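I hope you will forgive my troubling you with a question about protein structure. The record follows directly beneath this note:
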Amino acid sequence: MRSGLTSSKAKKDACEMIWKYMNKFIELDLKKKKKGCELNEFDAHRFLENFGMTLSVKDMREKLREIDIDFNKHVSLTEFLIYKHEADVHKLVNASQGEADMEKINKAQSLLEKAQADCEKSKEAAIKATEAAETAENSRLSAVKAENEAKKVEAELRKVQGEQTAAEDALKAEEKKLATKKENLKKKSKNMSLGVVKRNKAANMLQQLLAKDPLPLQKAKITQAAVVKKCQKATKKAARITGKAVEAREKAEADAKQAKAAKQASEDAVIAAETAIEKATEYLEKVKQEVKGAGKGKLWLMDRELEEAKKYMPKRALARLKKKMAEEKKN
């Protein structure tokens, strides 16, 4: 092979590059992603440029023709690696893929996929929990705002109610004052101990009062009527705003409940992911020790994918897993 990889570090670096190549292929394959297997000429060219390779797609196509790979105007990762490392196609195609240990390898793959799926669920649950928490907080703030507005409106209502009480008291005072004055004039108009002029004057004044309210009473009635309307309007407004505040509080409580449930679901998903990762890691380590021949590449890839999955584990859980694996290696 062109690379002449012999040292352990060089092999490790080469494996890591293959990991980067694979993920770049997945990134560029917008339609199929992980399920894809090749890139069109344009994306293949982008792939090469990303890794600083000056080789054109045309030149690479010619090289692939030289090693008898059917050209379909697409470049697969395998084709790229064959060119990159000048691998023997026939040897690669006929190489053992660990058939003797395939049952163990497949089980390890199954556990890995379970761990990856649980990690994905954990990420989704975490996103939902975050969104639910944000929604709950926004609802809480909205409820507080609505309740403060309701308090403000209720204070305004109490003020208007005070004005209404004062206006009613003032009206009653004027009515009492008028009634007293009428009673006095009535008595005076019929008091025979008084002269005719005084009696007639009192009778005339009484008639005027009976015909039309005096200005202070008129003003009191107008003021009282205006305040009544103002109070009715304030009462309706207070009822409307208070109703909205109640609805906002109920929504906030419901959202808080959902946020709590989403948080619990997220925590449960994390535990499930941790369990799956731990189980997959333990079994994969066991298989890595047992499989000595072919299949190492697949096991390395599974191990690498598992390392990616572990990035989503909480730090404490990851430290606990590493400690456990270290202890098992000692034993």
